[in-house]
Amino acid sequence: MKCQWCESYEAKETDATVYWELPDGTKAIEIKETPSITCSECGITYQTDETVGHIEDQLFLINTSALEKSVTYEQLMSLPRLLKRNYFDFSK
């Protein structure tokens, strides 16, 4: 897999812990086991645009007030949505 940062072919799919600010800015949460890319050449770990979009949409569409400080990616994605989709995302 090609690294988006250094363009080396030493990048591999991994899971990582990331920290995300809630859309309302009230707090940040830890999201464990998040699908990520890690490059052994440059040492960076990052998430694809698709994964970032999934996290941001889910945080926008769920009741974040009851959200724990730390969740796994799967737990976050399985939480029930208040809306069917993000009606404010005009990029789609």
From TrEMBL:
<dbReference type="InterPro" id="IPR022453">
    <property type="entry name" value="Znf_MqsA-type"/>
</dbReference>
<dbReference type="Pfam" id="PF14122">
    <property type="entry name" value="YokU"/>
</dbReference>
<protein>
    <recommendedName>
        <fullName>YokU family protein</fullName>
    </recommendedName>
</protein>
<dbReference type="InterPro" id="IPR022451">
    <property type="entry name" value="CHP03829_YokU"/>
</dbReference>
